Amino acid sequence: MRNAAIIELNMKLLLDMLDFKGGIIHRVYTPDDLINPSYFNVVIEHPDLPEVEDGERLPVVTPTMQSFYGEDGSLLKIERIDPPKRGKK
Question: How many domains does the chain have?
């Protein structure tokens, strides 16, 4: 027996968590060619991501996140630092 459930996330919440606020999620999936994958893919449209033409293969981007802590050690925020935010390049 296992303890398991389907975790349902609102698309806006996922975009906020990844620090791509205002973006559009087109698809969430696991790689078809892997058994027991350790990650999933999210196809996102957002101005901070590389520009691509229709029909072009999408690049794989792995965001880098930075955590900020208060003096008491409490987590204050998590912010994406790569890819850089538009206007902060």
Answer: 1
Q: Count Cβ atoms within 10 A of the Cβ of residue 20 and give its class: 0-12 exposed, 13-18 middle, 19 or more buried.
A: buried
Give 24's pLDDT tier (boundaries 50, 70, 90): very high
In terms of residue numbers, what domain contains 28? 11-48+58-82
Percent of the chain with pLDDT over 70: 97
Q: Which two tokens stand for residue 66?
A: 């930075």
Instruction: For residue 18, give Cα distances in angstroms to 52, 57, 68, 71.
Output: 20, 22, 15, 24
Kindly state whether residue 4 falls inside one of the protein's structural domains. Answer: no
List Cβ neighbours of 81 (8 Å cut-off, separation of 6 or more): 64, 65, 66
pTM value is: 0.82
Judge whether 74 lies within some domain. Answer: yes
